[in-house]
Design brief:
2 copies of one chain form a homodimer.
Chain A (H helix, E strand, L loop, with lengths): L1 H7 L7 H14 L5 H7 L5 E6 L5 H16 L3 E6 L7 H12 L3 E4 L7 H10 L3 E4 L9 E4 L1 H14 L5 E4 L6 H16 L9 E2 L5 H12 L7 E4 L2 H13 L9 E3 L5 H5 L6 E3 L2 H17 L6 E4 L2 E3 L10
Parallel strand pairs in A: 1-2, 1-3, 3-4, 4-5, 5-11, 6-7, 6-8, 8-9
Antiparallel strand pairs in A: 10-12
The structure holds a DNA duplex.
Pfam families (chains A, B): LacI, Peripla_BP_3
GO molecular function (chains A, B): DNA-binding transcription factor activity; transcription cis-regulatory region binding
Keywords (chains A, B): DNA-binding, Transcription, Transcription regulation
DNA sequence: CTGAAAGCGCTAACAC
DNA sequence: GTGTTAGCGCTTTCAG
């Protein structure tokens, strides 16, 4: 019996001959190990959890699918753990999860990626974790995009269209992405030889409504911008709405671009110029690195994936 | 020990006093039963799977959250089973799932709700299932909305605005919803005393692009419609794009309405008049009925949930 | 390299 | 109403 167990778990100390015979029998009998018995007896659960906040976004659905891809390919199960990110009980919740479900590892998505208390506790518990787009500080295992460079590039695109007054709507302050995109904005401006003007940078929080509000503030300026770089697509959609409501036209009067390339980018009119992140692939790669670390502690690392600029109809030449 | 087990599983034959004391101890010790041990010893897995196709929609993400709500509240786990709905290997895939993961039940979403071969096999295996918006034929356990009445009502709204040439873009033929919405369209027309005109009904498949294409066909008609009822929001968004591209305005020249009230409905310009389904609640209720059936075979039923009309800016008076 | 023995934490079946 | 006993199907430990 133990020999069969060894073969199934790819453990050493089985003769080639025995291994072959076991495998033949497994195939013939269509034998499938019982996951619960494995979990109960062993110390692995073959289960990883995906922790996330803000459940209703397309972004997360994509990441989730990627994580699922990776797990299924390695005969792991995935469980979902939506958490309300308010930093109070989050550590306790995760503890319950780890203790009760005995998860072998977790995938973190922003902004949970950057909860220091949680990361510390996970380290203490010895639970490996992979992060999707974490802030600089905990770059250990996971996947990342050079968002700063992407933002600089899209701002460069705006500048190349002749825009000189380019505004930026910031993202939610708890997300690392907001910082990178702002830095990229400034970098893009600098490269194009444009001056950074604080009045053209307004707060947002990644929601449609915040984009709408922020844009109205920008359009009320004595010298309003001719282009707006919103830190994500939802806010860009809100910006377009605010612009249209004033009887202005996108991109004739104001150009707008976003970030993420969620489905909404293609579904609004005019279609949005934005930065595409390979979200599903990111989930897959993060999970794959996590699984490496689960198998062999210390292995797994940070992988960087490429972005692509999606030039569509929401950006055009600066008005004369 | 067994007494504790009884309390935790809400089984009968425990005195109120004992039950209370056990619960107190559970709370004090933060005791959490081990799912694997339960599964191994008992015949239940405390696991339900959600089967779905077409993973990248907001609709599914919402349903998923609802199912998760219900499962968590009853200490069940949920697993995701994305399936490519092409009716060939779907039965085999589900068999593996049921046999290997020993799921106690499954939640079905359209169009998987209506795969007769799958339903038959599930019945044979004795695996209970709940369906979200299934076609008439398998109304056993699940949740449903009176989509037909909703469609009739929204068409009535269009008629009350003075529209007499109201077009309809149909949904994907494999979905029961497409049929109901078409019926509702005809019913709404009839009630308003308007004639049903086959030329004003065009095919779609629930995608943005199909709505765009369909709308162009409608606008090319000798006598184009002044209002379009698209069978879902994505197609309505495509319709708005097609209309805007011709230099026409929504709702001044053409009114547009959709169905579902997904986030895109609020995020496009102008915001979409549509029918809101309580999607998350539907997932929750479907799962709850499933859990009833798991606990007590034969119980659980079909529950109907209310819809609400969301009147927004994409519909207005018929042009003079 | 192989296998026997002893559980993992729970529930089913059956006493009491 | 409550407790006892015997596993569920594996992995661990340790002896051969």
């Amino acid at each position: 019996m133990k020999t069969v167990s060894r073969v199934l778990n790819h453990e050493p100390n089985v003769s080639e001959e025995t291994r072959r015979r076991v495998e033949e029998a497994v195939a013939r009998l269509q034998y499938r190990p019982n996951p619960s018995a494995r979990t109960l007896a062993g110390r692995r659960s073959y289960l990883v959890a995906m922790l996330y906040d803000n459940p209703s976004s397309n972004y997360l659905m994509e990441v989730e699918l990627g994580v699922l891809d990776a797990c299924q390919s390695q005969h792991y199960n995935m469980m979902l753990a939506p958490l309300v990110y308010d930093a109070k009980d989050i550590v306790a919740k995760v503890e319950v999860l780890v203790v009760q479900s005995r998860v072998d590892g977790v995938v973190l998505t922003p902004p949970i990626t950057d909860d220091q208390a949680l990361l510390r506790r996970l380290d203490e518990l010895g639970v490996p974790y992979a992060s999707v787009s974490p802030k600089e500080e905990n770059r250990r295992i996971g996947v990342i995009v050079d968002e700063r460079r992407a933002a600089a590039e899209i701002v460069g695109h705006l500048a190349s269209l002749g825009h000189t007054r380019i505004a930026h709507i910031k993202g939610h302050p708890a997300h690392g992405a907001s910082g990178w995109r702002l830095e990229g904005y400034r970098e893009g401006l600098a490269r194009a030889g444009l001056r950074y003007e604080p009045a053209l940078v307004v707060d947002g929080e990644f929601s449609y409504d915040s984009g709408y509000v922020a844009t109205n503030a920008l359009l009320d300026l004595a010298r309003p911008p001719t282009a707006i770089f919103a830190a994500n697509d939802d806010m860009a959609a809100g910006a377009i709405c605010a612009i249209c409501e004033r009887g202005l036209s996108v991109p004739r009067d104001v150009s707008v671009c976003g970030f993420d390339d969620t489905p909404i980018a293609r579904h609004i009119y005019p279609a949005l110029t934005t930065v595409r992140q390979p979200t599903r692939e990111m989930g897959r790669l993060a999970a794959l690195e996590l699984l490496k670390a689960i198998r062999k502690p210390g292995s797994g690392g940070m992988v960087e994936v490429p972005y692509t600029l999606q030039l569509r109809r929401s950006t055009g030449p600066a008005p004369a």
